[in-house]
Amino acid sequence: MADPDKSQLFDDWPEKYDRWFTTPIGSLVKRVEWELVSEFLRPGPGDFILDAGCGTGVFTLDMLSLGAKVVGLDLSFPMVKRSAKKALVLPFQPVLGNILRLPFPENSIGKTVSITALEFIPDGDKAVRELFRVTRRGGLVVVATLNSLGPWAARRRDEAKRGHSLFQKVVFRSPEELAALAPVKGEIRTAVHFAKDAGLDLAARVEEEGWRKGLNTGAFLAACWIKP
Q: How many of the other CB atoms lie within 10 Å of CB of 62?
């Protein structure tokens, strides 16, 4: 997911990470995040996708379910192991590796995606350059990260001050800062406009309004670029 010195930061998190997405608010977060990522990535049969920072395969399984072949790369062995177990009979190849030094040739992968990994990488330029390097010309590069303008950012910063081990390592980026990491212009949008403690009905209404207005303050920030 991140730098070599963070290789064990996520090792104790696979179960906690998956459990969060089974909660009512976590399930809603996952759904709206995937709606945005899938609109950008458009995974389907015949696609060969690199999921860089795949974690436990939460989003990888959605790509696989739509017929894509996926290489899932992560720095944490427990995360990779869990994702491989979930995708046991699917066209999935787990790889233990670093997004800053992707073990793939130039122009070798049709689509690359990285979801909520970039916030643990201070050298975001290098990570995005690596994704572009391995993506074929005309292919898609999709990156999603935590938005510094989002309603969850202040809360996560407070948790970091109180000693939360993960959020102490987070680098929040704005839409403009994410856009600046790529060598070409792309499309940038956000999702998860509701607060963590909002009820499900209110959260759904707030999300719909944020989506309709095209707000740039959603907690989940995603960009899509086409490699020239």
A: 17
**Are the C-beta atoms of 131 and 111 separated by less than 8 Å?**
no
CA distance 169 to 154: 14
- pLDDT tens-digit profile of 129-169? 999 999 999 999 999 999 999 878 777 777 667 776 666 67
Do 121 and 100 contact (CB within 8 A), yes or no? yes
Q: Give the pLDDT score at 168.
A: 67
Q: Which of 58, 127, 54, 43 is nearest to 93 (CA)?
A: 54
CA–CA separation, 25 vs 88, rounded Å? 28
- pLDDT tens column, 25-84: 999 999 999 999 999 999 999 999 999 999 999 999 999 999 999 999 999 999 999 999
Please measure the distance between the N-terminal and C-terminal CA atoms of the chain and give it in whole angstroms. Answer: 26
pTM (two decimals): 0.91
CATH dotted code for 4-226: 3.40.50.150
Cα 74 from Cα 9, distance rounded (Å):
12
- Asked if 82 contacts 10 with a C-beta cutoff of 8 angstroms, the reply is no
What contacts 24+ positions apart, CB below 8 Å, involve 68-75?
Answer: 68/43, 68/44, 69/93, 71/95, 71/104, 71/109, 73/97, 73/99, 73/102, 74/1, 74/10, 75/1, 75/2, 75/4, 75/6, 75/7, 75/10, 75/99
- Reading the block at residue 145, the tokens are 């990260």
Sheet containing strand 109-115, strands side by side: 92-96, 69-74, 48-52, 109-115, 135-146, 220-226, 187-191
